[in-house]
Amino acid sequence: MTPNKKRWRNLALFFGSSLLVGTLIIIAFIVAMTVRLTGDALRPARTAIEQTPPDVGLDDYQTVTFTTRDDLELHGWYIPPQNGAVIILLHGFGGNRQDLLPEAAVLANAGYGVLLFDLRAHGESDGSLVTFGQRERWDLAAAVDFVLMQPGVDAERLGAVGFSMGGATLALFAADDDRLRAVVIEAAFPVLEDVIRSEADVFGPLTEWPAVWTVRRAGIDFDLVRPVDALCAISPRPLLLLYGEADEVVSPAERNAMLAAACDPVERWVVPGAGHQNYTEVIPEVYTARLLSFFDQALGFTDDGSSG
Q1: Phi and psi dihedrals of 209, rounded to 5?
Q2: Is residue 191 within 8 Å of residue 226, measured between CB atoms?
Q3: Which of 111, 98, 71, 99 is nearest to 296 (CA)?
Q4: Which of 24, 75, 93, 295 lies in the 20 to 30 Å Cα band around 113?
Q5: What is the distance between the alpha carbons of residues 190 and 62, in angstroms, rounded to a whole number?
Q6: 199-209, pLDDT tens digit by residue?
């Protein structure tokens, strides 16, 4: 080999090796950042509670706490019922109990009792890990236990409204526990693994796989967080399944999968012009009327609140 060829070969090897090392460094950086960002998402920053029931005209409320099966103390607000019925409200990922104060006002002003509480790792409640419904079901179970111990509560008239992750939690819980007699699920995702893969689909498998691995490593079993598979088991209890037509978080395909999976008796409602949880802003009067009509009928009330 001539000295010229040898020099060019050495240069090619040098640049090839440098390119390979650089590519591996970039891949390692992308994987590490994906793991870090996914881990952060499992432990979201808490949103401060800046509103309380009196801000929506609800002065007759109690600040309460109750404990889950894994010894987490959850914090909430309880408004006693005037008609014996109580509706439990579950917020979404990264939120807290104040997010559903508008819904609480609608229900309480119609005589319903209401329990709003912070899910684990949110608001003022204990916990540091979000499991997107897998263990949040235990939070809802503790909430149901708490409500049923309160005076003046009719155990046959207990319902719930869950938004987004709260809706997914509600679907998973209600499928196995029939103490909830009426269920409203708003903007819930169908399959957690699909959500994680979609959110992490920046560089294809290079970011998807580390994200999925991180979630599994945190102890989350994807097979246990498939609300779409739980919906039909809520039957024969009444279900209202609600989505915004312009939801920027839940895709039309995900929405349609949930709507198709629900079994009768079910009301399917896609709100024109609504996004992810702004129903009380887009159609306040219609939303109020339909929510109250659903619970009145499902829990055995007539329009004037008397037993039907």
Answers
A1: -65, -45
A2: yes
A3: 111
A4: 93
A5: 34
A6: 998 888 889 99
Tokens of 253: 């395909």
pTM: 0.91
Q: Could you read off the pLDDT of 163-220 as tens digits, one per residue?
A: 999 999 999 999 999 999 999 999 999 999 999 999 998 888 889 999 999 999 999 9
**Residue corresponding to tokens 């881990």:** 39
3-state class (DSSP) for residue 69: coil
Question: Per the structure block, which two tokens stand in for 8?
Answer: 């060019």
Structure token pair of residue 124: 């003022």
Q: What angle do CA 250, 214, 228 make, to 5 degrees?
A: 35
The whole-chain average pLDDT of the chain stands at 92
Sequence-ordered strand ranges (E) for the chain: 62-67, 73-79, 86-90, 113-117, 158-163, 182-186, 239-244, 266-271
Asked if CATH classification 3.40.50.1820 holds for the domain at 51-191+226-298, the reply, yes or no, is: yes
- CA quadruple 123, 126, 132, 133: dihedral positive or negative? negative
**Contact 111/305 with Cβ under 8 angstroms?**
yes
Q: How far is CA 104 from CA 25, 57, 92, 302, in A?
A: 52, 10, 15, 20
Q: For the chain, how many helices (H) and strands (E)?
A: 10, 8
